[in-house]
Specification:
With about 725 residues, the protein is mainly β. The protein has one domain: Maltoporin, Chain A (Beta Barrel), CATH 2.40.170.20. The chain is built from three helices and 35 strands. Strand 25 and strand 26 form a beta hairpin. It is globular and about 80 Å long.
Length: about 725
């Protein structure tokens, strides 16, 4: 337990050094808990875009740990195991939602009615001279487009944009095997009358390279084999986006956002297996190829009307679709000139989402307002999968690459959800120091499955939330939240799907009996803004009471063929502490050096459905640490920085019906240097995974039958690495 709640010494040092600087109240803390940064605040750093301005603000958690921003490709390792997000692309949240703990970015108090057309990309296209101020909204207000969010950033633009501009970004990225891929982007923005517009076109062909080495021993601890693997993935594609904002008159406005992407991807794998069970050892080789296509489009918009009494009508909509297809073929290499196919796996899916939301906001009293509305969402997943194998009884078919077709349960299915969600939100500014936001949402949904499986089920939830904020001083804010959270079901869990995480498994079974997992969230947040704009120290203590948790469970029908799938395994709990410190190092004479430290400790418990023992929830780290710094040299028009991410007290455990996996890895390092020329041309050199020998590892213990038998069959020890990724990017304006 002492180790679990031990914070890094650096976080303590930064906190103590910062507190020692306390003398005067921070001057930019305004009424209603809003922190305002005028455009003049950023002049010394000569920012080029709105994103550059956000990168200089202490305490903002934009995902880059130090505000790298500026077009990072963000291809770092995953830290989760989570399946949550929209049922389409796996991200973007459920519907429009009513706020979350994540950061929300508004432009002129409005959010973008889109999921794939992200706001942060828009910020990198807005010239800094168009920004009037940036607001960090720590309170609540009926005038906001978001409610109950952890951080709300409002970028306020000048009433009149400058003249239209055409921006460009060109660059190249070098992978560990020295493969170079280009990247080209064009941005056009401007204003005419009441219409503000942005448009972009991008061509981006990222390239991914990983190599791995796996050793395995048998259950009696004798040598089994060694597998050396090189994998290359080569997506190619591009897309366009557009954002329109039209002020119809002083009382009404409309926004429209659209995006489209399209491309292909090819994955090639070379695998060498050395068998140690025979003497002399035998080497065998395999090749895999996985060509595929993808396409995604989205259109979203909103209309807002303000009455003379100050009330507000608003309607929002989103429609999107994501289609992907992939064919995986595996060959045994017999000689330099011959190979034999042993696996054919073809998968196709198309996900469509349609959402409309309407609301009416009115003042109840002078300091209170109510928002009442409803949301309707339709989500559809069409999925097909075909499997062919060699060496089994049957008639070959060209539909499965000339191999023997194999039956796959629930391979051709359509899953559809219709959800209706009326809601009521009450906002009360109790005083200048206190605010209270309460809401209740009722969710009624129907999930229908057609095709290989025919099934319909209804669900309903009442989702209350209470969010209380109290400013003890203009600098110190406390916040308490109680909320019932219902997670989105991932539709791929309903149907048979390819298993990209296990080369020894061809498909992953679906589960038609899934229910939404949900939990009660209890949390206390505190934020202290250090005097003289030194920085921010914040902490979050939380407890989550989980119900119907979704993890791996036994769905075996035939004991000769064990099967598992994601299913509802029961109730559990999760709790933790998250501390963040972001400090300008004025105490050592370096006011332009911003150091950020984040440390999270977490634990959880649930009863494993296969073993019947208490364990930690899957996908949950015991602890994570993030360190980053950013140093600006205004006299040289230069800035540089570095970040490192690491986990401590062990890695993640994954339990399945016949194996247990343990994951661990080395720290993950990024670094960048950026220079802005007198002509406002920005050159950025960035390196990801800069430690060449850094690796991620996995130990998997396989068992004969279920893991409850304790009959060990094999232990696999695999490590993989991708090496440094170097990118050079130049941006400017024509």
């Amino acid at each position: 337990m002492d180790r679990l709640f031990r914070l890094p010494n650096l976080a303590y040092s930064l906190l103590l050094a910062s507190v020692a600087q306390v003398s005067f109240a921070q001057g930019n803390v305004g009424d209603e808990s809003t922190v305002r940064y005028s455009a003049s605040y950023f002049f010394e750093w000569a920012p080029v875009t709105a994103q550059d301005m956000l990168d200089r603000i202490p305490g903002l958690d934009l995902g880059g740990m130090g505000g790298f921003g500026g077009g990072s490709s963000s291809r770092g390792r995953s830290t989760g195991g989570s399946r949550r997000g929209s049922p389409g692309s796996g991200g973007g949240g459920r519907g429009f939602g009513g706020g979350s703990r994540s950061i929300e970015i508004l432009i002129n108090g409005k959010r973008t009615a889109g999921k794939n057309n992200s706001t942060d990309r828009q910020l990198s296209r807005i010239p800094s001279e168009q920004v009037n101020r940036i607001e960090i909204i720590r309170g609540t207000s009926g005038e906001l487009d978001v409610r109950g969010s952890g951080q709300v950033i409002n970028v306020v633009l000048n009433e009149q944009f400058s003249e239209s501009s055409l921006q460009y970004a060109i660059g190249a990225e070098q992978s560990p095997d020295n493969t170079v891929r280009p990247r080209v982007e064009l941005f056009y923005s401007g204003q005419t009358g009441g219409l503000n517009f942005q448009g972009s076109a991008m061509r981006y062909d990222p390239y991914f390279y990983t190599s791995s080495r796996e050793y395995s021993i048998l259950g009696d601890f004798s040598p089994n084999d060694r597998i050396l693997e090189v994998r290359k993935r080569d997506p190619q594609g591009g897309g366009i986006t557009t954002n329109l904002d039209y002020e119809i008159n002083s009382n009404s406005s409309a926004r429209l956002n659209a995006s489209w992407t399209d491309g292909t991807h090819t994955s090639d794998t070379v695998r060498k297996t050395t068998d140690f069970k025979v003497n002399p050892n035998i080497d065998t080789f395999q090749l895999e190829t996985s060509p595929g296509i993808y396409g995604n489009w989205e259109i979203g918009g909103d209309y807002e009307f303000n009455t003379q009494a100050g009330n507000r009508w608003k309607i929002l909509f989103i429609s999107n679709a994501l289609e992907s297809a992939n064919t995986r073929e595996r060959y045994d290499v017999l000689s330099e000139t011959s190979k034999e196919k042993n696996l054919f796996l073809d998968s196709w899916s198309n996900t469509k989402e349609r959402i409309v939301r309407g609301s009416y906001t009115f003042d109840l009293f002078e300091s209170q307002d109510i928002e009442v509305g409803a949301e309707r969402a339709q989500t559809i997943l069409d999925s097909k999968l075909a499997l062919g194998l060699a060496g089994v009884t049957g008639t070959p078919s060209q539909s499965v690459g000339g191999l023997i077709p194999m039956p796959v349960s629930n391979a051709n299915s359509t899953v559809e959800e219709m959800r209706y969600e009326p809601f009521l939100i009450h906002n009360w500014i109790i005083s200048q120091e206190m605010s209270l936001e309460t809401s209740v949402l009722y969710e009624d949904s129907e999930i229908m499955q057609r095709g290989d499986v025919s099934k319909e089920r209804d669900f309903d939830f009442v989702k209350p939330k209470v969010d209380f904020r109290y400013d003890l001083t203009p600098q110190l804010q406390l916040r308490g939240t109680i909320e019932k959270v219902v997670e989105q079901l991932t539709f791929n869990d309903f149907v048979a799907a390819t298993d990209d995480q296990d080369e020894d498994s061809n498909v992953q079974a679906g589960n038609t009996d899934l229910r939404q997992e949900w939990y009660w969230n209890y949390e206390i947040n505190s934020e202290y803004r250090l005097p003289n704009d030194i920085g921010v120290v914040s902490g979050r203590l939380y407890y989550e009471d989980w119900h119907d948790r979704i993890e791996r469970m036994d769905v075996t029908v035939n004991e000769a063929q064990l099967q598992s799938a994601n299913g509802n395994i029961g109730d559990g709990e999760k709790y933790g502490l998250d501390i963040r410190t972001s400090v300008r190092m004025r105490m050592i004479g370096l006011p332009n050096l911003l150091i950020t430290v984040r440390s999270t400790v977490e634990d959880s418990k649930i009863i494993d459905p296969i073993l019947g023992v208490e364990r930690r929830m899957m996908g949950s780290w015991r602890g994570r640490t993030n360190y980053a710094f950013r140093h600006d040299l205004p006299n040289l028009n230069l800035n540089y920085g570095m970040s490192v991410q690491d986990s401590f007290d062990g890695g993640r455990l994954r339990y399945d019906i016949d194996d247990i996996e343990y994951g661990s890895g080395d720290p993950f390092w990024d670094a960048f240097v950026e220079w802005v020329s007198p002509q406002d041309i920005t050159l950025r050199l960035e390196a990801q995974q800069i430690i060449e020998k850094a690796k991620m590892c996995r130990e998997r213990r396989r068992f004969v039958g279920r893991i409850s038998s304790s009959a060990l069959e094999e232990i696999e020890d695999q490590c993989y690495r991708s090496g440094p990724i170097i990118s050079l990017r130049m941006t400017g304006t024509f």
